[in-house]
Design goal:
The chain has about 200 residues and is mainly α. The chain is built from 11 helices and no strands.
Amino acid sequence: MDTKKKILEASLKLFNLNGSYSVTTRHIAAEMNISPGNLYYHYRNKEEIIRVLLERMFEEFNLFLRPADVSRDASLNLAAAISSTGHIMYKYRFFYMEIYTLLEKDSVLKKRYMKIKQERISDFRMIFRYFEHAGMMSGPISDKEFLALLENAWTLSEFLLQSMYLNRIKITSENIIRKFSHVMYMLRPYLKKEFRELIK
């Protein structure tokens, strides 16, 4: 693993443990046993590190959300998507715990996040349409209804970890998957009866 990747791994570890707000580039350099100057050679500041982590997080989401992947069995796709989403949210949990503060503090990060959000909406639109064509849906969903459903699910997902924290639910991959499945309950009424058990 090269130094740039090691910096990202060390940063992610510290951000998840202590919150990015309390971690400085000096803390990251100390964790790696390198000089701050060495770190600055690769990343100008902590904000740049967080931006790169955001890109990496969504690249991991892309592995199972992009169009090339929906050619698989639709039911397997849905079950795998829920599980993978939970694991990725846990891996980058600091971002979800601090999302509002991070986006408000860094306009570059916010602009990129909003662009990714629009891309993700297009991805989900394609996946939902695939479920329709695969015969999983009980009926067609209008664009207006689909966008409302997606916006509500996205909003709940964005603040899922904060809600778990406030309700004293331990933040683990398993608990995130379970709670994210609850978010996906909004999809259940639109699925045929034989597919509803995919969302538990």
